[in-house]
Amino acid sequence: MMRITVTVNGQVYEREAPGHRTLLHFLRQDLGLTGAKEGCGAGECGACTVLLDGQAVNACLVLAPEVDGRRVDTVEGQAVDGKLSTIQDAFNRNHAVQCGFCTAGMLMSTQDLLSRQPKPRDDDIKEAIEGNFCRCTGYLQIIEAVRDASGRTDGKGGLKHA
Amino acid sequence: MLHDFEFRAPKTRAELLQVLADHGGLAKLMAGGTDVIVNLRAGAIKPRVVVDVKQVEGYGALAWSDAEGLVIRPATTINDLLRLPGLRERFPLLHACAHDLASYQIRNRATVIGNIVNASPCADMAPALLCLDARAVIASQAGEHEVPMREFITGVKRTVLLPGEVLDRVVVPAASAGARGGYAKLKRINGHDLGLVAVAVHKHDGELRVAVGSAAPTPVMVAGLGENDDAASVVAAARAVISPISDLRCTKEYREHMVGVYIRRLLREVA
Ligand SMILES: Cc1cc2nc3c(=O)[nH]c(=O)nc-3n(C[C@H](O)[C@H](O)[C@H](O)COP(=O)(O)OP(=O)(O)OC[C@H]3O[C@@H](n4cnc5c(N)ncnc54)[C@H](O)[C@@H]3O)c2cc1C
Ligand code: FES
Ligand code: FES
Q1: What pTM did the predictor assign?
Q2: ipTM (interface pTM)
Q3: Does CATH place domain A86-149 in 1.10.150.120?
């Protein structure tokens, strides 16, 4: 058992973390932050995506003691005082959410992307979300939402279906 | 739920080697954990101690120099490598292989060295490191020794490493810089996937090399071909060293066929 100190969404937490606890279970069960989802538990689906020191990672493939002294950002940190983030708002306007299981991960991959590349090309967007599976939307609305969040569309959510 | 184990994150190499010496086969090294944690979760490995190498002093350094070449340390992730200025110009093949490995999130964690030690037949970093004459520098309490990459992987998930040893660095010699190269990886889907088969083509100083992944127990390489050899003879030379199998994902005939298709394509592309 190890005592760790970690800053999650700007708040400092000090907790016991056994070696075999994944960051995903630590967030969901020990801190009650259930935004990150467990889809596969094995790095395939991206539903558990969070930022570790600003970089998108699969929380199911990080051990809790590894994050001692580091910064984690989860989807709970995006909205401030009940006001959706620019990214969340764009997902909303562009119908990029259906069942919602992939959404927290998609939002965090997008946050990582836009922090690196405020004006991503479509290829950059596809690369950033290649590790995030969505079984509902077919991805077009999600790509459109990321373009919208980056200011590349008129913001009216007008994806034209062929 | 993972089984109970002790987690250690040594800060110096001496401490790391001591932990390994103390625990022998019961210790499992971990870098990015993208293979180790998957295996822990599946119950495929049950170490008593998991030893994180990423905090060891110096293990995060990644550097190019004209004298030493490219020195890759145990905490270097695939994305660290991709972000290294000048990588694509000096080592286009290394860039192409790294870019084709897994997904963006995984590349933020997966290390180059973990990929090689994991020694999967489909390890995406192996074809480039074979063609580029990379060397593995192995450390233990007994000291350091060097092994050429082409002798490092000995079988499916097997390497020359012994308990108590760590792969301290992989060195890509400066003499390989400027080699032209390309990589083609066959996947079932457009997104991230392990390769069904993969081919690397490398041209340098008049020599042509071809490396093939997922078509034998280890990634394999044919060296000593001439830059101007005709495609049919290059394909024949590659077919002579592979031994593809049929499995869940595709047949051996398909693998063998696609090796030929990719060699021909890459020979046209890598001018
Ligand atoms: C969803 C998913 C997709 C993937 N896709 C691909 C893919 O497309 N291509 C591909 O090649 N791989 C893929 N992988 C496998 C994996 O991501 C890579 O092999 C990765 O490079 C492993 O690096 P790591 O740092 O995570 O290794 P770890 O899991 O930490 O370690 C891997 C092995 O290396 C050993 N090890 C690590 N560091 C050292 C060291 N310094 N000295 C001695 N031993 C050491 C460990 O004990 C272990 O046996 C995928 C994995 C997942 C989960
Ligand atoms: S739950 Fe982590 S990638 Fe699927
Ligand atoms: S909205 Fe259902 S999985 Fe993406």
Answers
A1: 0.96
A2: 0.94
A3: yes
